[in-house]
Amino acid sequence: MTQSPSRPTRVAVLGASGRMGAAACAAVEEAEDLELVARIGRGDPLDAVAAAGAEVAIDLTVPSATGENVHWLVEHGIHAVVGTTGWTEESLGELRARLEGTDGVGVLIAPNFAIGAVLAMRFAEIAARYYESAEIIEMHHPNKLDAPSGTATHTAAAIARGRAAAGLGPVPDATEKDPAGARGAVVDGIHVHAVRQRGLVAHEVVQFGGVGEQFTLRHDSFDRISFMPGVLLGVREVAAHPGLTVGLDGFMDLG
């Protein structure tokens, strides 16, 4: 669907009754080049998105619903900007296949919309080439439904790419017994530790270790408003990127 440059882009928000959804609605309403035409909460029919003439939909729902939502949007020619986690390689592959049969529909799935978090992931991939050890600690509010976070999973994949490019082998770890799982999850060969604690929003620490030194990357989102510049960037750019883009960095000039 092509939008006219002479009028605002028509936007719908799925998951509008949640905290992220409410923040997204407010951000869209404040943007002069965007128009909020539909707020979709739990139980509301998706038909309302098409009936409102939405050109782009922001999905901020839950992992159990996002796949069906996005496939519906693609089927109806509506671009999608997705902040809901829970996507797997299998579900991403199914979405890519669905998009191949569409005419110019774009979908962005972003593990994190905070610009600093996107930069941290890119910096982690660069740093991974130079350090023997790497681990991730992700910290979120206790209402988060999945662990590890999509951001941590995406960061681990970036670190793995950097290590592979440098010809590095497995991260050194002599642990033989860990019956309680104290070493955390292992994602793409990188240990990831998830913290769920009241008072937190979204935080990530990436620790790299080398002989005689430690290098640490940290990003903190203290308020959900920190995600809104990235959400709006995605809404403004998704139509220009047909097919599937995973990661907001795909819309940013990061080299």
Quickly list its features.
255 residues, alpha/beta, Rossmann fold, Dihydrodipicolinate Reductase, domain 2, 2 domains, 6-stranded parallel sheet, 5-stranded mixed sheet, 7 helices, NAD binding, NAD, NADP, diaminopimelate biosynthesis
Structural classification:
alpha/beta
The CATH superfamily of the largest domain is identified as: NAD(P)-binding Rossmann-like Domain
Tally of DSSP β-strands:
11
Sequence of strands across the biggest β-sheet: 2-1-3-4-5-11
Q: What is the 3D form?
A: elongated
What would you say this structure looks like, in words?
The protein is of the alpha/beta class and 255 residues long. Helix content is 32%, strand content 25%. It has helices spanning 19-30, 47-51, 63-75, 89-100, 115-127, 150-165, 228-237; strands spanning 9-14, 34-40, 56-59, 79-82, 106-109, 133-140, 185-187, 190-196, 202-210, 213-221, 243-246. The strands form 2 sheets. A 6-stranded parallel sheet has the order 2-1-3-4-5-11, sandwiched between helices. It has a 5-stranded mixed sheet with strand order 7-8-6-9-10. β9 and β10 form a beta hairpin. α5 (115-127) runs parallel beside α6 (150-165). It is elongated, with a radius of gyration of 19 Å.
